[in-house]
Amino acid sequence: MNILIAGDVVGGPGRLAFAAIAGRMKQAGQADFVIANAENAAGGRGITQPLAEALFAAGADALTLGDHVWDQKELVKTIDREPRLIRPANYAPGCPGRGWNTFPTPLGKVTVISLQGRTFMPPSDCPFRAADAILARGSADLGKIIIVDFHAEATSEKIAMGRYLDGRVSAVVGTHTHVQTADDAILPKGAAYLSDLGMTGPKDSVLGRDVAAVLKKFVTGMPQQFEIATGDVRFEGLLVTVDEQTGRATKVKRLQEKIDAPK
Predict the structure, then answer these.
(1) Whole-angstrom Cα distance, residue 236 to residue 15?
(2) Is 202 part of any domain?
(3) What's the CATH code of the domain at 71?
(4) Domain range holding 209?
(5) How many domains does the chain divide into?
(6) What's the CA gap between 157 and 175, in Å, rounded?
(7) 90 falls within a domain
């Protein structure tokens, strides 16, 4: 089974790149299941229900979120009704939404788990214990194929999570930094791993934002309006091939593809 996982989708350019690449790969049979981190889809600040629907229509089977999940206040009222939206599982009990979900597919169940790191990140419960609690449900509930999006800042915390879950999940992929790492691998016990998927959006930017405004902020320390950039739009992510019988990854391919975005 081929699972396509897209790095942080940022604003309109990111949504366009996701639709172009994920849609093409799904139609061509190159991706059987598609996951995207969409917490920056609404102009870099969370996601709305209409934008989520647009990404589902473009090919996403599940959308993971992160520390910007509540930036669009309307989502608080709608996230419970959309099982394909997955916010971090280690948020406090009682938060709206769900931190994982299992999806039936023709090739077997796929479970998607979202976790958020704690190093240089907003307060949250322990992601390691949250993962343990979910995985304790067993394969009868979760299926063999389990994909974890670890939304975290520190590379060390991401690597630690990959090693902690190796042999118990199919893949651990990092999001949040918007910068793709080059450490794609299959860990010793069969989990695919990448410290950060990168960013699906405008690379001619500072993490998706207009360069001039960000530079002015750093140089002067004064507040700036950070608009989404538009240049050099790319899709970044990872394609993971998983053995449906064992849940082990057999192949990983890091992706970075430029698209021709309208001016």
Answers:
(1) 12
(2) yes
(3) 3.60.21.10
(4) 2-258
(5) 1
(6) 12
(7) yes
Decide: 92 and 125 in contact? Cβ < 8 Å.
yes
In a domain, 252, yes or no: yes
Would you put residue 221 in left (φ > 0), alpha (ψ -120 to 50) or beta?
left
Question: For residue 123, what is the DSSP state?
Answer: -
pTM of the predicted model as reported, rounded to 2 decimal places:
0.96
Task: Give pLDDT tens digits along the chain (263 positions).
Answer: 999 999 999 999 999 999 999 999 999 999 999 999 999 999 999 999 999 999 999 999 999 999 999 999 999 999 999 999 999 999 999 999 999 999 999 999 999 999 999 999 999 999 999 999 999 999 999 999 999 999 999 999 999 999 999 999 999 999 999 999 999 999 999 999 999 999 999 999 999 999 999 999 999 999 999 999 999 999 999 999 999 999 999 999 999 999 986 65
Q: Where are the alpha helices (DSSP H) in 3-116?
A: 11-27, 49-58, 75-78
- As given in the structure block, the two tokens for residue 193 are 């791993």
List the beta strands (DSSP E) in the chain: 2-6, 8-9, 33-37, 62-64, 85-86, 100-103, 110-116, 145-151, 171-175, 185-186, 192-194, 199-204, 231-242, 249-258
Residue numbers annotated as active site: 68
Identify the residue whose tokens are 């009222």: 77
Residue 263 belongs to some domain of the structure: no
